[in-house]
Amino acid sequence: DAVGGVEANKQKLRQAISIALDFEEYIEIFNNGRGIPAISPVPPGIFGYDDGSINPYIYTLNPAQKRPMRRPVEYAKKLLGEAGYPEGRNSTGAPLIITFDNPWTGADTAPVINWYIKRFKLLGIQLENRTTDYNRFQEKMRKGNFQFFSWGWNADYPDPENFLFLLTSANGKVKF
């Protein structure tokens, strides 16, 4: 599996993808500019949110404006090369293909899927869409039969526990 693992090259691949997935752009296009990209599991306005933190793998701090700036795609391409996939190709020259599992069966989801494909293409990575019904999607998640997916969580009460309990308690689906 090209994406999973704790080895340095796998981490660099995931970091490159994270940089290429420009969620500032996503929010502007699909949410009409309403929202901010997540930088932690705990969102702004909730106790425990660290307003001064940034994800140093995706952002640098602009000292003049004192706000995070997304690392450029050129930096992501450099990381991709260090991961063993220069220009999105492996050592034999074959393109890196990553599968994208999602439960988005509605007609209005095609632009979102195409946005993900476009962002991966910036790195030379081919993103193969695998839309399925929600039951099949959940089965893939439970069995770990995926490479890349998008899934969300909506809080029903304003407490950090509402965001962290699935990651740190017996309610979690997996141990890690």
Structure description:
- The protein is of the alpha/beta class and 176 residues long.
- Helices cover 35% and strands 12% of the residues.
- The chain has 6 helices and 5 strands.
- The protein has helices spanning 8-20, 23-30, 73-82, 110-121, 134-143, 161-168, and strands spanning 59-62, 67-70, 97-102, 126-131, 148-149.
- The strands form 2 sheets. A 3-stranded parallel beta sheet has the order 4-3-5, with helices on both faces. Strands 1-2 form a two-stranded antiparallel sheet.
- Helix 1 (8-20) runs antiparallel to helix 3 (73-82).
- The model has no long low-confidence stretch (mean pLDDT 90).
SSE layout:
Blueprint: H1 8-20, H2 23-30, E1 59-62, E2 67-70, H3 73-82, E3 97-102, H4 110-121, E4 126-131, H5 134-143, E5 148-149, H6 161-168
Parallel strand pairs: 3-4, 3-5
Antiparallel strand pairs: 1-2
Helix pairs in contact: 1-3
Overall pLDDT, averaged? 90
- The multimeric state of the shown protein is single chain
Task: Give me the number of helical elements.
Answer: 6
How many DSSP-defined strands?
A: 5
Structural class: alpha/beta
User: How far is the first residue's CA from the last residue's CA?
Assistant: 18 Å
Indicate the low-confidence ranges by residue numbers.
none
Index terms:
single chain; 176 residues; alpha/beta; three-stranded parallel beta sheet; two-stranded antiparallel ribbon; 5 strands; 35% helix; globular
